[in-house]
Write a structure and sequence with these properties.
The protein has six helices and seven strands. With 221 residues, the chain is an alpha+beta fold. The chain has two domains: 48 residues; 169 residues, Beta-Lactamase (2-Layer Sandwich), CATH 3.30.450. The strands form two sheets. Strands 4-7-6-5 form a four-stranded antiparallel beta sheet, with helices on both faces. Bound molecules: heme C (HEC). Heme C binds next to helix 3, helix 5 and strand 7. It holds the Pfam family Tll0287-like. This is Tll0287-like domain-containing protein. Keywords: Membrane, Transmembrane, Transmembrane helix.
């Protein structure tokens, strides 16, 4: 009797342990499957990531780099277009004619220099554009850019959509470039090319002065 009881208890223990063991094995398998499944899903998601999101990512990096250059490089220069800067600590001038002088590029020029290199990669293109452009390369081109620029100026919001250029489909997004500092307004309003081309256009603080256009080519359907 005692022996039978002991056997019963022992068998119970074995059963419990086996069940627990099987449960653990199942749990590990499920985790492995869901993890590898998750991995596959992620790679599919990144292959099919929404172009809108890609454009937002690219824009975030571009805007951050431009702000960082303005804040941490240009702001440290002692001179900006011939005018002394209060907080400047470096004996260098940030000037449009940086190549002719010993200066450093303005933020918009730095942005363009970067875009010229990146645009050669063939992955996507980006550019600063404005209806009141100083640099001719910044004129809005084609119907999409014209419409996008008008809408962005009217709403202050990004404009996104699809366009076809030379048989290639693109997802394009235009992000407003606003006069966030007094320097944006003064420099543009007093620039000789601006005065000559747009004598009646006086930028004001917070106004949309142009935009950053990003074009992402889409794989053929
Ligand atoms: C010290 C002068 C100066 C300051 C300050 C300045 N810009 Fe510019 N900006 C320029 C010049 C010069 C260009 C043309 C650059 C080039 O040759 O690519 C330009 C280009 C641009 C363009 C592209 C259209 C065009 O005119 O060619 C936009 C949009 C723009 N700036 C917006 C801004 C905003 C917004 C700010 C403030 C955050 C700002 N700028 C500050 C001088 C300035």
């Amino acid at each position: 009797m005692n022996f039978a009881n002991e056997l019963e208890t022992w068998l119970d223990r074995v059963r419990t342990r086996t069940v627990a063991f099987i449960a653990i094995v199942i749990a590990v398998c499920v985790t492995a499957v869901s993890c590898s499944g998750g991995g596959a899903d992620t790679s599919q998601a990144s292959a099919g990531i929404a172009p809108e999101l890609v454009a937002d990512y690219i824009h975030t990096v571009l805007a951050a780099d431009r702000t960082a250059y303005t804040k941490h490089v240009v702001n440290r220069a002692q001179t900006l277009e011939g005018k002394a800067k209060d907080n400047g600590v470096l004996t260098v001038e940030a000037t449009e004619g940086w190549q002719q002088t010993d200066g450093i590029p303005l933020p918009a020029q730095m942005f363009r220099l970067g875009s010229e290199i990146a645009n050669e990669s063939g992955y996507f293109t980006y550019n600063l554009i404005s209806p009141w452009y100083i640099n001719d390369n910044h004129a809005p081109k084609g119907d999409f850019e014209q419409t996008a620029m008008d809408e962005t100026i009217a709403t202050g919001e990004p404009y996104k959509g699809y366009q076809e250029v030379a048989g290639q489909q693109y997802f394009s997004a235009l992000y407003p470039d606003k006069a966030v500092a007094e320097a944006c307004v003064t420099c543009h309003n007093t620039h000789p090319i601006h005065l000559e081309r747009y004598p009646d256009k006086l930028f004001e603080m917070d106004e949309v002065m142009g935009g950053i256009i990003i074009n992402i080519p889409l794989a053929g359907a």
